[in-house]
Amino acid sequence: MKPASSSLLRRSAARRGVTLIEGLAASAILALGISGAFGGLVLASQQNTSAGRLSQASAIAQQVRAGLQMQGRARLLATTGPMHASRCSSVATVRELADGLETLPGACVIDLDAFEDAAPDVSDLVPGYAPEERELYRRVLVWTTLTDIDTVAVVVSFRSGGSRRFVKQFVALYNPAVNGAGVEL
């Protein structure tokens, strides 16, 4: 009887060893699965943040475009307006914020944030543009003139995933003295 019980004990010990190895393998697979799930959550969170910033940049561009339309061509081009020729920037870092539009013939890139920082509040295109937003988003105007139409691109940019992303919206300003309709916009 003794030999049978020692054989039984050996088989029982062998089963415990296999169970331990199986447990370790299952734990490793579970750890890999959990790390993959957390990685997916982190990626989804980053994409959600980027989408939120893109949405906010679009809203800011829309507000600036509406501000351009409300002020009208004459006020925008006046010496105190944001689109006076003296406001065209030759600074490379500002021109880069135009995302390629600075290469258009006769393009004038205007740092809207710098203009609004220096001008009285009544000159702001977007009243109440928060300082926190100015830290995240940069706004420039790219102004070109084609015959009697001034084309203005509103470019809002922000950093996302280590690179700069851009939102562009366009508005046309008509010269009432040239178009014959007496209408600015």
What does this structure look like?
With 185 residues, this protein is an alpha+beta fold. The protein has one domain. Helix content is 52%, strand content 21%. It contains six helices and four strands; from the N terminus they run αααβααβββα. It has a four-stranded antiparallel beta sheet. It is rod-shaped. The chain starts with a helix and ends in a 6-residue tail after the last helix. 19% of the residues are buried. The model has no long low-confidence stretch (mean pLDDT 83).
Main features:
single chain, 185 residues, alpha+beta, 4-stranded antiparallel sheet, 21% strand, rod-shaped
Task: Describe how the helices and strands are arranged.
Layout (H helix, E strand, L loop, with lengths): L1 H70 L1 H5 L14 H5 L11 E4 H7 L12 H6 E10 L2 E12 L2 E12 L1 H4 L6
Antiparallel strand pairs: 1-2, 2-3, 3-4
Write the element-wise H/E pattern from the N-terminal end onward: HHHEHHEEEH
Give me the Rg, rounded. 31 Å
Report the biggest beta sheet as strand number plus sense, adding barrel if it closes: 4 strands, antiparallel
Shape: rod-shaped
Beta-strand content estimate: 15-25%
Strand order of the largest sheet: 1-2-3-4
Q: What is the end-to-end distance?
A: 106 Å
Q: Residue share in helices?
A: 40-55%
What structural class results from the helix and strand content?
alpha+beta
Instruction: Give unreliable regions as ranges.
Output: none
What's the number of helices?
Answer: 6
**Number of E-state strands:** 4
Rounded mean pLDDT score = 83
